Amino acid sequence: MTAAILETRALHKNFGALAVAQNINFSLEPGRFEALIGPNGAGKSTFINLLTGLVPPTSGSVILDGQDVTALPIEARVKRGLVRTFQINTLFNNLTVAENVILALDEHHGQGWRPLPSPSRRRRIRDEAYDILGRLGLTPWGNREVRELPYGRQRLVEIAIALALRPKVLLLDEPAAGIPSTETGTVIEVLENLASDLAVLIIEHDMDLVFRFAQRITVLVQGAVLARGTPDEIADNETVKAVYLGEGIHA
Amino acid sequence: MPRPTVRVEPVKRLSVPHPGAAAPSTWRGLAMGRTGSDLAIAILLGLGALATLAFGESYWLLGSQVAITMIFALSVDLLVGFAGIVTLGHAVFFGVGAYSVGIASVRLGWTEPLLGLLLAAAVAALLGAATGVLVLRTRGLGQLMLTMAFASMVYEIANRAKPLTGGADGLQGMVVSPILGLFDFDIFGLTAFLYTLAVLAAVVVFAVLMTRSPYGRSLVGIRENRVRMQAIGTGVQKRLLSVYTLSAALAGIAGALLAQTSQFVGLNVLHFSLSGEILIIVALGGAGRLWGALLGAVVFTLFKDRLSALDPAYWYFWLGLLLAVIVLFAPKGLIGLVDRLLAAGRPKETA
User: Fold this and answer.
1) Across the strands, what pairs with A173?
2) Is A139 in the same domain as A185?
3) Does B7 touch chain A (CB under 8 A)?
4) Are residues A118 and A223 in the same domain?
């Protein structure tokens, strides 16, 4: 088994008396595509926020690529390859789609402090941005401001920005949320074509999507890991079924 | 109320073909694609400066003031218009720059003007970095209050430190050496005008390049969406602190120029009303476009000069009227008007 690219050790978070993450041990290997599911309020988003550094843990640690990053701020973890998308679009709405990606590319290439423009570099970066947009079918939208795009397309811009950062670990927070079911096809296509050495953890309510793609599923309930296994194992797990009764879990 | 949207470029560009070479090159969302207005204003201001040099002997002193205000306005636009930091205390850096060269000259006999500019920039930058750490912890109204608070504290310190600053009487007897040892400041103000113009030109070139650089664009990114900037790996606080410090240095240079060209420093350079005025200038011209702030500085300073001559007692009324009209009818400032004028002069493309 290859070494985990992302790992948590007894990661714990209390909000007052409420434990929203209970000693979670989790690991993700390069090239894996895994899902995190659980009923509303199970602590999925909190777990993501603990991973990215938005929320500091009460105890426990986050290990990224063999290094303890628990004390590092969000941006430092991003620089080390831990990248997320947001459940609710968090984009530069007044900038064009290409500009959104260019900003990410600039930061990724460590150019964010560069105080002088360089036309040749800028052309290269723009080409790079359009390469990414091309992979997501966003090329025709490149010069449109994000707010002019339909919501489904905006969801893809979230992914485009994440890909521009060349992640080692990609955390997808409900990438299909808010997209009409007729349009989820594009998202699925994108997910299928992600780089093979990329580790992906997806939070998703769309069980079709989860059971179609995930190699392993972690079920979170009340901040604790209830079950962890392959889609088949999870689908047959009686406890999971009980938790999801009425929510229609099916493989 | 829906705001009228102004566009120079046609919005509809549904199918933009790849590859990159043919891909649109303008940095459109940052409003930097509207270089037409920038160019028009640059030409207008350049011609104005030339005409003043050639024919406007009696306006050279005023010209220096305009140029100084333009530098100050640029420094504020970088903060307010680009990085989205609000300030009602930027006069503190302008004033500290002015007092730095003033005190260096009067108390220490250090009269070299260019070194004086460097000194002013350094002192203002230090103060900017020190207060910025605290100011940038807050946002919005809190930020506004903090900038005001620091500015009033420094104002009172300058007021009390009479042996150093001259207090309310001002700092008298300032001497400035010839620039580069060659050009002495003359009583017509020609040297002063050319000097401030040269510094202005350098600052404008720097600001234009900077705002088009990855660094400058990252500031806009922070203004537009701070959470997203952090999520793409930007150390937002450091980036903001750097521009706050830079802006303070530029304001300090503007203040130093005022001290050098008028050879006097009074407490008014630190006063709250100056902080207010410079913010008004940026809003008047149109924030976030550089050339808007520059145009605003010219229009405001000239208006103030004319109005206060025509109607010394009530000129603030007319200024208020001008501002009200601009805000109501040109919410994007004077540069927004220029955008509209240029758009109207162009054959309309329908998509």
Assistant:
1) A203
2) no
3) no
4) no
